[in-house]
Amino acid sequence: MNSRRKFLLGLTSLGGIGAISSLNTFTDLSFTSLFSEQQWLVSCGKDRQGNFFAAAFDLSGKLISQIPLPARGHDVIAMPSKPGHAVVFARRPGQFIFEVDFRQGSIVKRVNVGLERRLYGHGVLIDNDGLLLTTENDYQLARGLIVVRDTTNYQVVGQYDSGGVGPHQLAVMPNSNGKQIVIANGGIQTHPEHGRKKLNLATMQPNLAYMSLQSGQIDDTFELANKHLSIRHLDVSSSGKVVAGLQYQGRPNDEVPLAISHHGEAQLSALNAEQSTWRSMKHYTSSVCINSDNNTVAITCPRANLVTYWQLNSGDFMASYKIKDGAGVTLIDEHFIVSTGRGRIVSQQEPMQGYSIRGDFEYLQWDNHMNAISA
Questions:
Q1: Which long-range contacts (CB under 8 A, 24 or more apart) does 129-134 make?
Q2: What's the rounded Cα separation, in Å, for the pair 220 and 267?
Q3: Distance of CA 239 to the CA centre of its chain
Q4: Which end of the chain is more exposed for a tag (fewer CB within 10 A), N or C?
Q5: With 90 as the cut, is the pLDDT of residue 195 above it?
Q6: How many Cα atoms are found within 13 Å in the side-chain-facing hemisphere of 325?
Q7: How far apart are the first and last CA of the chain?
Q8: Residues 85, 102: contact at Cβ < 8 Å?
Q9: CA distance 115 to 205
């Protein structure tokens, strides 16, 4: 039975396609019986005392190391060329980037982006981890930047206009040999003197932009008709289809789509769902994760206490599952792993009959993103 068929059978056992299922019951199976032991999960978070950290934990839910951070972190990305290493980014409008060694539980390199820049919490590595690309805010000129650093010393070797204001997550386009990226320009102007206050809600213009890294030029940009739909997080399929999650900055009672896709078309397309589904997501999405082999997309909605699933090819809504403060989501061996702001790590179990708790860190609150790295 192929993995796609297994997934559909699992949804049927939980109430059928389009059902909203509850995570009130779990089984506790050995995590390592399902997945490779050569991977760790990594995420930022906060403990009960309010201390911020980045942590790695293994696939049985055992904490490997917990590294203190000076402020709240956001994303953590793997360094495939260095097992056990990852890059940690400060949450907007932070200034630090750390390369960490989770094997040793230490910070290897510290980067401060400088007084005239602020981070948006995301980055990607290219050129066999030799170059780091980050989304940054040139707040004096109110423009977004893609900044390139050499990871041998993390010195800036280039910077380009992101094609919009408020660039958030970015990704490398497949089959481009690391020469093209896609950028979610959220459209929201901020300034460190005003913290996280949104300064341009009346005039914001979010877009999805494609950039050539050979020239630093924007190849194309795509906008939505509703300018209050901020494009924030995204993932790209193996064939190059982009799926992005949105955060709505308009009126509280508006019913708007909160996820879009793009794959070479002349315009962006909303995923397909009933208004009741969009309403249930409470105007806010967090992490986006694509399983290309399984034709499935997972999008977390922490404010709505939901994880939503969608068909990749058609864009059709499949199901929502209740999970309190569902935050990060990543993929290991074709299984979605979800973290929560309540300290839990849960996964789908074969044969897709529901979710299982894989870690219950009651004293920790996981942040909005989680990834897998090589142990």
A1: 129/79, 129/80, 129/81, 129/82, 131/157, 132/87, 132/97, 133/170, 133/181, 133/213, 134/89, 134/97
A2: 11
A3: 19
A4: N
A5: no
A6: 12
A7: 30
A8: yes
A9: 26
Calculate mean pLDDT across residues 104-129: 95
**Do residues 258 and 243 lie in contact, with contact meaning Cβ atoms separated by under 8 Å?**
no
Give the type of residue at 277. T
* 80: region left, alpha or beta (phi > 0 left; psi from -120 to 50 alpha): alpha
The closest alpha carbon to 344, from 331, 330, 332, 327, belongs to 327
Rg of the Cα atoms in the chain: 19
pLDDT at site 6? 37
Question: Global pTM?
Answer: 0.90
Is the pLDDT at 122 greater than 80, yes or no?
yes
Phi, psi of 53 (to 5 degrees): -160, 165
- What is the pLDDT averaged over residues 191-202? 88
- Asked whether 90 and 112 are in contact (CB, 8 A), the reply is no
CA dihedral 41, 46, 51, 57 (to 10 degrees): -20
15 to each of 25, 110, 321, 353, how far by Cα in Å? 15, 48, 11, 10
- Nearest-angstrom CA–CA distance, 67 and 328: 18
Residue 94: C-alpha distances to residues 46, 50, 69, 152, 221 (Å): 16, 17, 11, 22, 27
Percentage of the chain beyond pLDDT 90 is: 78
Q: How confident is the model at residue 36, as a pLDDT?
A: 54
For residues 133-153, give the mean pLDDT.
96
Q: Say how many C-beta atoms besides its own lie within 10 A of residue 203's C-beta.
A: 10
Q: Are 339 and 366 in contact (CB under 8 A)?
A: yes
